[in-house]
Every structure is written in C-alpha cells, then in structure tokens.
Design brief:
Helix content of chain B: 40-55%
Radius of gyration of chain A: 13 Å
Shape of chain A: globular
Largest sheet of chain B: 4 strands, mixed
CATH superfamily of chain A: Glutaredoxin
Structural class of chain B: alpha+beta
Strand order of the largest sheet of chain A: 2-3
Number of domains of chain A: 1
Oligomer: heterodimer
Helix content of chain A: 25-40%
CATH topology of chain B: Glutaredoxin
CATH architecture of chain A: 3-Layer(aba) Sandwich
Number of strands of chain B: 5
Distance between the termini of chain B: 20 Å
CATH class of chain B: Alpha Beta
Radius of gyration of chain B: 15 Å
Chain lengths: 69, 142
C-alpha cells in the first residue's frame, strides 16, 4: 500500500484503496485473492507481492495503455 | 482493551513528529452492517488521533450521510479516508491492523505535507497520466 498511497498523493488521477481481505471475503473472492499483498490496478493489471517502485509504475502505466486492436 | 500498547504509542508519536499540517481521518461506520468491526475500527482511529493534536476524526454513516459517502466514493464499512489539505484518494477498507497499520501511519504523515516520497522519474510519469488509475491493495491482518 505504501507506494500506492504515495502515487495517489503525487497524482490527482490516482486513488489507492487498502482492502482487508478477511473482512471483505466477497471482494477477495471476486478478485481471486489467494495470497497477499495482491495488487489490482483498474481491474486490468494485477500482481502479487511487493514490487520495486519502477516496476510498480510500469504496472500502473500498463493498466492505462490503450487496448490493442 | 486498547489496540495500541504503551510502546506502540511511543513509536507512533515518534513518527508523528514528521506531521506537517492538519490531517482528517473520516471514518465510515454502520452498526447494522458490521457493528463489531466498525466499533473496533473507530477505536483504533481514535487511539491514533489521540497521539497528535493535528489529527481530527469525523465519523459518518454511509446511509445517513449518503451524499458525503457518495462524494468520497465509499460504499463499504468499516472504511477510513485519510485526508490532508485535500482528499488525495487514500482509503482503507477494513481495520488497518497488522501490516496495514504502518501504512496508515505513513499515509497520515504523507498527506499532512502533500509530498509523495517517490523518485522524480516516477512523479514525472504520473504527472502525464490522462486516465484515472484505481489501485486496490489486498492484505490480511498478519
């Protein structure tokens, strides 16, 4: 969550929500959370575990890339 | 029983020395949906806020305070919005215990200044975003 919340501060475009998976089992199931931390960006890009800042940013940019025809 | 032991309070107070401006923790609670969890969440937030005068707490009910909840885009309880000079879009759904507790503390310090601790390259890339980005981070208490 640390990188996500700092990205939210840096950009008005970004929001960061930490979700306690055991308290929201329906949401955790919907997003197929089998391990934590699991990060889901725009319901489009997801990964598990902590990533270095540059790779986290790559994931964010990938999540807003136009869909290829 | 308090969430924060004496040594935790001392450690958090030490971190809060870095707070640079007012912070508001907007808590969403709804007794009928998740009474016990909401009470625990409120207690944790109040204990954290009690450690520094610059932190205030507001408790809202998403049904009664529907317009506010919609403005914050909060539908679930318990939830916390961490707000500084403005709402930066930082939310915690569920009690931020365990691993997320340190992120709650970090977010309070970060929104108090509005300064993100990121590399200049990352900030530059984020400044060029033309689409909204919603990041969800799932975690567990341990």
């Amino acid at each position: 969550m640390r990188l996500a919340q700092h990205m939210a501060i840096a950009s008005d475009r970004v929001t960061a929500t930490a979700i306690e998976a055991t308290e929201f089992p329906d949401m955790a199931q919907a997003y197929q959370v089998s391990g934590v931390p699991k990060i889901v960006i725009n319901d489009r890009v997801e990964f598990m575990g902590a990533l270095p800042e540059s790779q986290f940013l790559d994931a964010v940019l990938q999540a807003v890339e136009p869909t290829k025809p | 029983m308090p969430f924060l032991a004496e040594r935790d309070q001392v450690a958090v107070r030490k971190e809060f020395v870095r707070i640079q401006g007012p912070v508001k923790l907007v808590v969403f609670s709804q007794e009928l949906v998740a009474g016990e969890l909401c009470r625990q969440n409120e207690q944790l937030v109040r204990e954290v806020a009690a450690l520094d005068d610059r932190i205030s707490v507001e408790v809202l009910n998403p049904v009664i305070d529907r317009e506010r909840a919609e403005a914050y885009d909060v539908e679930e309880v318990p939830a916390i919005v961490v707000e500084g000079a403005r709402d930066y879009g930082i939310r915690f759904l569920g009690i931020p215990g365990g691993y997320e507790f340190s992120n709650l503390i970090d977010s309070i310090i970060a929104v108090s200044s509005g300064e993100a601790t990121l590399s200049d390259a990352t900030k530059a890339s984020l400044a060029e975003l033309t689409d909204d980005v919603h990041i969800k981070v799932f975690s567990t208490p341990t």
